[in-house]
């Protein structure tokens, strides 16, 4: 047998888990996946990754995600673990026929464009703004990068506010709850909590505030918060998670 021969289906799926298994640490991007799993009423195992000892960079974890980033979801019936939050939540929504407009729906394009925007613009900018010194070691340059990112992040929340206002709310797609709302809510939480230094606040985005208030009353969101050690109002009055291993 040469290297080029395809691997048999049963071999590829041999390591596929029997249940979903979410790898995460408190209040990291796994929180978004957890809210979606809870909304869909799915059962899953949870595998804690200790960021305080950099477990996400261990050889074992990098076999799941070579980037050493959280989250990973192991998915029954898939031939590889999934990483990238947006990919995971859209896969869950599509597999279970809920929380995303189906292909062919007139809202599908709107859904996809905002999903990609949340993932590759807002979430990505936030991530860099939390630790700009990772990207540019010079302190002054890092500060200036941080300031530029906060301006971009404020602009992004402005675009989302305009969309919410145009759709009439309460959700990003109007009356239809989707995984976009969970993704956006977690980003709004982290934007207020970490390295924001009072530069961005919900005051300028009343429609977004209303969405966050709606979401934080949902039982599935409350359950996810409890499991992540997040107390109080997670999106409109965010406080750091109260579990060992919580990192900024
Ligand atoms: N694009 C990735 C970003 C994930 C991400 O930034 N994960 C953070 C936690 S929220 C992480 O693993 N940080 C650990 C590190 O940077 O070492 C996704 O959407 O899943």
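^ Assign residues to that structure.
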């Amino acid at each position: 047998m040469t290297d080029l021969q395809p691997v048999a289906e049963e071999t590829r799926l041999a390591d596929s888990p029997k249940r979903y298994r979410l790898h995460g640490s408190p209040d990291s991007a796994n929180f978004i996946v957890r809210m979606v799993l809870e909304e869909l009423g799915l059962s899953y195992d949870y595998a804690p990754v200790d960021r305080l000892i950099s477990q996400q960079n261990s050889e074992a974890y990098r076999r799941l995600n070579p980037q050493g980033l959280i989250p990973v979801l192991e998915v029954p019936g898939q031939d590889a673990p999934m990483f990238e939050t947006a990919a995971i939540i859209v896969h869950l929504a599509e597999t279970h026929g809920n929380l995303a407009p189906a292909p062919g729906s007139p809202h599908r394009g709107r859904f996809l464009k905002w999903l990609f925007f949340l993932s590759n613009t807002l979430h990505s900018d936030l991530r860099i703004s939390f630790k700009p010194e990772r990207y540019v070691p010079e302190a002054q340059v890092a500060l200036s990068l941080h300031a530029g990112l906060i301006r971009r992040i404020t602009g992004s929340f402005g675009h989302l506010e305009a969309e919410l206002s145009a759709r009439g709310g309460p959700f990003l797609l109007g009356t239809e709850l989707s995984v976009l709302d969970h993704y956006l809510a977690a980003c709004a939480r982290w934007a207020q909590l970490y390295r924001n230094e009072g530069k961005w606040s919900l005051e300028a985005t009343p429609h977004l505030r209303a969405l966050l208030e709606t979401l934080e009353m949902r039982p599935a969101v409350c359950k996810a918060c409890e499991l992540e050690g997040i107390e109080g109002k997670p999106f409109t009055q965010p406080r750091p998670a109260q579990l060992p291993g919580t990192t900024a």
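Residues 135 and 142 are 8 Å apart (CA to CA).
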